[in-house]
Design a protein that fits this description.
alpha/beta; four-stranded mixed sheet; VOC_core; Glyas_Fos-R_dOase_dom; VOC family protein; Glyas_Bleomycin-R_OHBP_Dase
Length: 125
């Protein structure tokens, strides 16, 4: 019934202006502010993510957005140079000094947070 729907994802942030600066300027994404106070992130694939302001925002405790990349080390290095800090984990997932999990059973992946505390990741495809 819904398989032909152009579904999209959304999640909340506590400050749209900070989110816009982060997603547009640090991550280099195509961001548009909606007159209703929402923010849309547009991808070349045609996908759109909607971010909305929520005064009592609580950050998600799980990954809300994943960015597949061809070379995770190159991407982590470039984002680190721009000031992004990658999360460090010891258990149950271990990350290296760069913040990359290199578990042989899964993809190479690194997590970081947006200004609202939502968890995002890049993973090598």
């Amino acid at each position: 019934m819904l398989q032909n729907s152009k579904a999209f994802s959304s999640y909340s942030v506590d400050d749209i202006k900070k989110a816009k600066d982060f997603y547009q300027n640090l991550l280099g994404l195509d961001v548009k502010e909606d007159p209703m106070g929402y923010m849309e992130i547009h991808f070349s694939s045609g996908n759109t993510i909607l971010l909305y302001p929520k005064p009592d925002h609580a950050p998600a405790s799980f990954t809300v957005l994943n960015f597949p990349v061809a070379d995770i080390d190159k991407t982590v290095d470039a984002l680190t140079e721009k000031g992004l800090v990658f999360l460090q984990y010891e258990h149950p997932i271990k990350t290296d000094r760069k913040g990359i999990s290199r578990d042989n059973e899964g993809p190479k992946i690194a997590w970081f947070k947006d200004p609202a505390g939502n968890i995002l990741s890049i993973l090598e495809i």
